[in-house]
Amino acid sequence: MRSNDLPNKERMKIPRQTMPEQPANIRNANFSEVNLGYTEEQAVLEAQRCLQCKKPTCIDGCPVNIKIPDFIDLIAKGDFDGAVARIKEDNSLPAVCGRVCPQEEQCEALCVLTKKHESVAIGRLERFVADRERLSGVFQTPKKAASKGKSVAVVGSGPAGLACATDLALLGYDVTVMEALHEYGGVLAYGIPEFRLPKNILKLEIDNLKKLGVRFENNFIVGRTATVNDLFEENYDAVFVGVGAGLPWFMDIPGENLIGVYSANEFLTRVNLMHAYEFPKWDTPVQVGKNVIVVGGGNTAMDAVRTAKRLGAERAMIVYRRSELEMPARIEEIHHAKDEGIEFLTLVNPVRYEGDASGHLKKAVCVRMELGEPDASGRRRPVLLPDSEFEIDVDQVVVAIGNGSNPIIGQTTPDLDLNKWGNILADGESAKTSKKGVFAGGDIVTGGATVILAMGAGRKAAAAIDEYLKTGIW
Fold this sequence. Notes:
Layout: H1 8-11, H2 24-27, H3 40-47, H4 57-60, H5 68-76, H6 80-88, H7 94-100, H8 122-136, E1 151-155, H9 159-170, E2 174-178, H10 187-190, H11 199-211, E3 215-217, H12 228-233, E4 238-241, E5 247-248, E6 261-263, H13 264-273, E7 291-295, H14 299-310, E8 315-320, H15 331-339, E9 343-346, E10 348-355, E11 361-374, E12 380-384, E13 390-393, E14 396-399, E15 403-404, H16 408-412, E16 438-440, H17 443-446, H18 451-471
Parallel strand pairs: 1-2, 1-4, 2-3, 4-16, 6-14, 7-8, 7-14, 8-9
Antiparallel strand pairs: 5-15, 10-11, 11-12, 11-13
Helix pairs in contact: 3-5, 3-8, 5-6, 5-8, 6-8, 7-8, 9-18, 13-14
């Protein structure tokens, strides 16, 4: 039955549809996408599980407020073109978000089915209709408003910048996106591996923005190529700063300067953006250790350790100072990592690295931890166990414990207020900063967060920019 008229009792008998994926013992040696997507039959069946609630709480969990029951209802009826069009009213990157957003913590967490059953697979359905549109080769381009004769500079082509640029272009503004790197997409390009987000999909999404009239300039470092003040002198009427949090953090322990110790930023950028996984076809070498540890428990750590495994590591290990329960990584990413042969060393923390006479990494000296009372993050604080020091033979370490704010714009815009961590101070709703005409959102304001939260910030900023440019009121 392809209908939205099933009784709720029948809907709840339908099991959540499992997404096909590459076998673990095959995918851990290649960079092809792990998840293979729903078939049409699976998508329709999954969509029929939606109860079409009168008060859809799932929307409350979506930072960009996608009309979730509407697009799922259209899938259930077999109107896939209508479904993707409905999503695009609020989300310009559905194929991306359907793959990398933590729906289990956002929209799906608030699905009423979770009271007794598994939630509707909202993210997988979003991915299905976006992929179907892409494979058809016919993209629906939203209608643009008439030109307003004003221009906006969007600094950074990550998720916040792309969302902001899309909404502004649709509102009729002349938008230019300025990107410091040679490829567009920000963290979507340099941070997320091919096996989670194929770059051809990202490129197509950006190409669709170009069709809306958004201009892109690469190798353009705002703060070096031109300052924020320069942009206003070049007759931009407003500036949105969405440069992310790309400054890697280290632990400040002995031995971090040894050859073989990477930040996750450098490691993943070499592999993803500079195609080291296709060496020597692409001339970007990257060290591949036999025994690799990745320090951290977030999605970036999972990306790094699964990448190391694919590059040939014999032992690829996660070292995390809390237990698995406290890991901020998506459950799916942890599950995939385990299936692929990744070792998890939890309640363990490195305290120093040791190398040989030539400065090459040879050992990680670690200690064991136990969990104490919860800290400010709500997770239980790791506490050192006395006399627990031990060694792990390693020849590569990737540090994935988080990132700081990009400092260049703050350094070159003295009237832009920052907090003590170097993040730009901006209003959470209007995205306004201390400098007139400058708006900011995403990780440069909040610190490292999710793709969809950054997109939500970009959309709020676009609405506020529109209001400012119409009224002149700051």
